Amino acid sequence: MTTSFLQFTEEKLGQAEKTELDAHFENLLARADCTKNWTEKILRQTEVLLQPNPSARVEEFLYEKLDRKVPSRVTNGELLAQYMTEAANDFGPGTPYGKTLIKVGETQRRLGAAERDFIHSASINFLTPLRNFLEGDWRTISKERRILQNRRLDLDACKARLKKAKAAEAKAACEGDAVPDFQETRPRNYVLSASASALWSDEVEKAEHELRLTQTEFDRQAEVTRLLLEGISSTHVNHLRCLHEFVESQTNYYAQCYQYMLDLQKQLGSSKGEIFSGTFVGNAESTSPPPAATSPPAVAAATLPAVPTIPVVPTIVGVPNTVAESVLNPNEVKPPASGTRKARVLYDYEAADSTELALLADEMITVYSLPGMDPDWLIGERGNQKGKVPVTYLELLS
Asked: Chief subcellular site (predicted)?
C-alpha cells in the first residue's frame, strides 16, 4: 500500500510514468459513469414528480433505510374530497350546492385513488429497478474499479523499481569493467564494484519476477472490470423496458382522470338546466353557475347571429311564463328565419330529459338561439329531432 501511495503521489507530481488503458476500456468507463450520473438524476426527478413534498420524501427515505413499511398517506385529491363532503353535509346535501359538492367530491376521491395506484405502480416498475442498479450493480463496478486502480499502481511501481534496478546494474557493470588502480588509497573499490554488480543483478531478477506477478494480477482484474462494464448494455435494455412500463402506467392514469372528469362534466351539464332554469330566481341566496370543465373548449353563444331579444320575466311559482315555457319545450318552437348555424359535436352527450338532444361525437347538427335562453345552451336540430344542447360540447362552424 505504501508503494502504491508513493506511485500515486509521484504520478500527481509528474515524476512517474502511468500505464494507460486501451481506448475501448476508457470508452466503457466513460459510458458507465454517464449511465450512473443520468440514472441518479432521472431517479431523483421522478421521485419529485411522484411526491412533490420534500418532507414526505425524506420521511419515506428514512422508513426505507430502517426497513419499515411506509405509512399510508392521504392524497391531495382524497383530502379535497373529504372537505367537499363535509361542506355538503353542513350546507345541506339536498341543496343544489350541496349536491354538486358531493358529485365533485366523489370525482376527486376517484382521482386521488387513481393517483395512489399510479404512484405505487411507478415506484415498483420504474424507481425500484433504477435504485437497484445504483445500490447494487454500480457499487460492484465501483469496487472492482478501485481494485483495478490499486493493481495498476502496483504494476507501475514494479516497473519503476525494475527500471531503477537495471540502471544501477548497468552503472555497477561499467565500474566493474574499469581497470583497477592498485596505487589508489582505497584499492578495495574494485572488489566492491564487482560485488555491487552481482547484487544489482539479483535485484533485477527479483523485480522482473514481481513485475510478472503484478502484471498477471492486473490483467485478471482488468478482465473482471471489463466484463462488468460491458454489462451496462444489459442495464440499458432493462431500464428501457422499465421506462415503457412507466409510460404505460402514466398513460392509464391520465386516461382514468380524463374519463372521470368527462363523467363529472356530464353530470354537471345534466343538472345545470335544472339549477339555472329560473326556478331558483326567487331565492334569497343566488347561486353562480359552475364553471365549465377545462376539457371541452368554451364557445360563447354570442358568436351566433343576433336574434331580436324579448324581455325575460323571472319565473315565479304559480305564475306561468310563456317565454320560459317555450325555452323548456324546444320541440314546440320553430327556428328563426335567419340565425341558424352548423356545429360539429366534440363529445358524446346523454340527454337528461325529453327537452334535451342526445349528441354523438363528430356528428353535424344545426343550432340556433332563442330569446331568453341560458347563454350556455342552444337549440339543436338533427333531422326531425330537436332539443337543448350545451354550448361547451360544440364547435360552431361558419
From this structure: cytoplasm
